[in-house]
Every structure is written in C-alpha cells, then in structure tokens.
Design the sequence.
C-alpha cells in the first residue's frame, strides 16, 4: 500500500538524517491524514492518496514557476527535490500518443461529433487515465480532436 511505502521512506529519511526529505514526507503524511479526516475515513485507498500527491505535485510546479523569475536557485533546488519525491510515488504519466489513442477511442465509442459534447468525452477519458495524465493536457487534446472533426 502506498501509505505504508511513504511511512517506510519517512522512517528511512529520519534514520539517514535527510532532514528535508523527512520534513517533506511528514508534511505529505499530514496531508493524507487531513484528507482522510475530511472524507470521514480511517484510511485512504491508494487512488485517493495518489489524488493528494497529484495535487501536491501541481502546487509545487506552480510554486516553481513563480519562484523561477526571482532567481533564487536555492528555492528552485528545494522545489525540484520535493517534486522528485512526489513523482516517485505517482504512476508513470501517459505519453501524448497514448492519450490521443484513448481520446479517439472514447470519441468513437460515444459517437461524439461536436465540441458541445466535450464534457462527456472528458469525463470518460479522465476516468480511464486516472491520474496518469494532466486534465489540462487531456482537455487540450479533446478540444483539438473535436474541432478537427
């Protein structure tokens, strides 16, 4: 289970005196616990934990964009290290070709012909990709496919 893997890595970081990694994993564990509390659950399943991690990944990427203009290399390095930690727990992202294949499959299965039905396509594609692709990228591809048909 993913939560147990995060905990083991946290303990390992403590033992190896990797303060930044230990602090960050402690923060992630707190985020997971807070999400479980908000859902009124004892524990989250792996899919829900991936959701927490994906949200954290997006926040870190946004922070990196805003910090990159400041020229503070130390902050950028810290964000990069935290991003690497988070990405280590996330499933491998799908390539654009794989997303295109899924989008084309969904469009043909649902027999969608207009951009007005983009919501139906998006819902199905996102359920099939489950955190393996960014929703913005999916939206861009679906929009391209539906406007070109």
Sequence:
């Amino acid at each position: 289970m993913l939560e147990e893997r995060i905990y083991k890595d946290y303990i390992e970081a403590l033992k190896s005196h990797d303060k930044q990694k230990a602090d960050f994993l402690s923060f992630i564990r707190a985020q997971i616990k807070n999400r479980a509390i908000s859902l009124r659950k004892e524990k989250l399943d792996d899919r829900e934990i991936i959701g927490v991690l994906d949200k954290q990944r997006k926040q870190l990427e946004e922070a990196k964009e805003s910090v990159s203009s400041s020229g503070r290399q130390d902050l950028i390095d810290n964000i990069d290290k935290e991003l690497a930690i988070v990405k280590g727990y996330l499933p491998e992202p799908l390539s654009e070709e794989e997303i295109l294949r899924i989008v084309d499959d969904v469009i043909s299965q649902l027999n969608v012909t207009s951009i007005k039905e983009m919501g139906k396509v998006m819902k199905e594609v996102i359920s099939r990709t489950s955190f393996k692709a960014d929703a913005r990228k999916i939206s861009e591809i679906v929009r391209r496919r539906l406007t070109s048909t």
Observations:
- The mean pLDDT is 90.
- The domain at 2-87 is CATH 1.10.1510.10 (Hypothetical Protein Yqey; Chain: A; domain1).
- The radius of gyration is 19 Å.
